[in-house]
């Protein structure tokens, strides 16, 4: 008679399975943040990396890539609208709000990576 719990084997497998490499998602978040200084050039590189690595990891990691891709495209809209609004001087305030939005999303993403879970509210246009 086998006294072993069948879940013990599953626990052993998950305990010995190495954690997925989160280096590339961290790099993409850093590139998004650097985009504030580079005028979005590094964010463009970051979104290309996110598209390339999407679908190659566990579900929670793929959600980070999806979050990063959405951050790029939504940020592009926010910064483009801010650029247009600078003609009426309110664009400087909306640009500052877009920078704060970007920083908060990247910090939330970094936190989720450290906890090895998907970011909260991936589909939101807000933070």
UniProtKB/TrEMBL annotation:
Which keywords does UniProt give here? Membrane, Transmembrane, Transmembrane helix
Membrane topology qualifier: Multi-pass membrane protein
Name the domain of life this protein comes from: Bacteria
**Main localization of the protein?**
membrane
Write out the transmembrane intervals: 29-53, 73-104
Localization recorded for this chain is: Membrane
Q: What is this protein called?
A: DUF4870 domain-containing protein
Highest classification ranks of the organism: Bacteria, Pseudomonadati, Pseudomonadota, Gammaproteobacteria, Oceanospirillales
